[in-house]
Amino acid sequence: MITILPAAPAEKEALFQPEADDVLVMRDGGQALGWVAVQAGRADLRLLALTVCPEEEAERRFCADSLLRAAASYAANQGAYRLCCRLSQWEAFLQSEGFQREGEEYVLPTSSIVKICKD
User: Which residues fall within 8 angstroms of residue 91, CB to CB, at 6 or more apart?
Assistant: First the structure.
């Protein structure tokens, strides 16, 4: 079963992400498939790092997309209305997901990924 959950403090340190508010780790059973480090601002959620482990392109895309969606959900729970990052190595992926370049950053409204339902 695939899960995406916040890393324990020791694991967060092991991933060298001390400035991150949280590190969301994707696992299939006990095997780590990737992680995204996030930092919440007042209106933005900054993606500090995105790492995926699978070698095969379709699996890499699946993992990256799943982690991006988990980060967007995290952002919505924090009250952030947009995602932003400077992950230029992920430019093609980010643009395919709808991110727009604004100066040196890539930005995407959280509402593009997460729909808020009111009861």
Answer: 106
